[in-house]
Description:
Blueprint: E1 2-6, E2 12-19, E3 27-31, E4 39-40, E5 42-44, E6 49-57, E7 61-68, E8 72-74, E9 81-84, E10 90-95
Antiparallel strand pairs: 1-2, 2-6, 3-4, 3-7, 5-6, 7-8, 7-10, 9-10
Amino acid sequence: MLTKRFFKTKDEAEVTFEFSHPQAKKVELVAEFTDWQPLAMKFVKKDGAFKLKQRLPVDKQYHFKYLIDGSKWDNDHHADAYVPNSFGTENSVVNTQRLV
């Protein structure tokens, strides 16, 4: 799930990436804005989900995926869009365009 918060005085959005996977010991966010380097997500026990907040420039789109336990890839099932990638699967997309 993606949650976005926009700031009146900054050209950036705070995006909360949230992913539930009951059997996962570790989930990492892998994205264009990290040069495809994994970022560890924190498990929030009360929500039963892995979460990570990231500030991103507004009015852009970024591709991303989740890496589960270092070996299994998954998409965000609530992403803004999905696009084919060079591996024959799809990437999730987060859009940081402000809604007026």
